[in-house]
Specification:
Elements (H helix, E strand, L loop, with lengths): L17 H9 L9 E7 L2 E8 L2 H11 L8 E6 L3 H15 L11
Antiparallel strand pairs: 1-2, 1-3
Length: 108
């Protein structure tokens, strides 16, 4: 189990998962661009959590590459002061909510 977030997948040699290991490095570094973490809902259920520095491009990718995108109703985004903050936010949201369409970081 990750010492940082409690995840039981994606271990790294130092006892933390790769997402938390990367986040620790980036916590002190300023973000390269505006990074957002976004939550996608269908009706009232969180179905996907993601992170991007180019929302318009990412939205196009979801639209063309996923069957579920057309069934979504609401997207909520959060801006973060550092890249590390965005990694931590994404990892915690995925761990705590287990969104249906996230593959990484989800244990079922």
């Amino acid at each position: 189990m990750c010492k940082s977030c409690g995840s039981t997948t994606n271990y790294y040699a130092k006892g933390v998962c790769i997402q938390c290991y990367n986040a620790e490095y980036w916590l002190e570094h300023p973000r390269p661009k505006q990074i957002i973490t976004y939550c996608v809902y269908d009706a009232d259920t969180l179905v996907y959590v993601g992170r991007t520095d180019d929302w318009l491009q990412r939205k196009k990718e979801h639209r063309s590459a996923t069957q579920w995108w057309s069934d979504t109703f609401l997207v909520i985004s959060m801006d973060h002061p550092t890249y590390g903050d965005s990694l931590v936010a994404e990892a915690i949201l995925i761990r705590d909510n287990q969104p249906r369409y996230n593959a990484a970081g989800v244990t079922r």
